């Protein structure tokens, strides 16, 4: 009987310890799943950063037609690891062959946000690896100076006058910016662009959208490479800081001493 009781107690202790071990393992797994909070919860870019895309003048090297332009950008770190961005530029597209003479041009702008995924090792580490979103729009025009259609019944020639149109699109991008010298940066980005409900402009349809690319494609990929300079002006120091009121010290009025007139007594004989 004693042996049976002792065996039962040992079984209960083993079951209890096994349950405790299982519970500890579950708690450890939960701790592993919880991601630690970022330690770089501070502003690393104190200023306004302006940039220029150095690839825009040389797009004719990898696109069909003579495409070139200029693009400038600006961004700042409004809160830790969050960067609002504005980009704007102007582009031209010319195609001249034996059957068509086309030209298109226009201005475009984009604005959006970038979020930095790369955790800083220290406060002097200003390199970022980011993902971003953009909304872009363009005001453009195109003209077909002449065209040639060679058919069974003979060649047909003609031209189309100037057409003005508006286009818009969205972008998803991944990029990197690194500080090469004090306040000087270089960076690249890969962009996926998709058109957003653009209206038809008649015949011929829009062929080129500045800032987007070939309009016949519903989506495009693009690559940018830019140089930047950060203007080291910490505008946050002036936000919410109240100027002390000027204290006006009034001069104390000095009381004039009262001079008593002497009383002359009559001399009696």
Q: Could you give a short description of this structure?
A:
With 269 residues, the chain is mostly beta strands.
Shape-level CATH architecture: Beta Barrel
Classify the fold: give the CATH topology: Porin
Structural class: mainly beta
Distance between the termini: 149 Å
Instruction: Write down the secondary-structure element order.
Output: HEEEEEEEEEE
Q: Largest beta sheet: what is the strand line-up? A: 1-2-3-4-5-6-7-10
Radius of gyration: 37 Å
- The CATH class label is Mainly Beta
Percentage of helical residues? 10-25%
Per DSSP E runs of 2 or more residues, the count of β-strands stands at 10
Query: How many H/I helices?
Result: 1
Gross geometry: elongated
Rounded average pLDDT: 82
Beta fraction: over 45%
Major sheet: 8 strands, antiparallel, barrel
Topology:
Elements: H1 2-33, E1 48-53, E2 66-75, E3 82-96, E4 100-116, E5 128-151, E6 154-181, E7 184-195, E8 208-209, E9 213-214, E10 219-231
Antiparallel strand pairs: 1-2, 1-10, 2-3, 3-4, 4-5, 5-6, 6-7, 7-10, 8-9
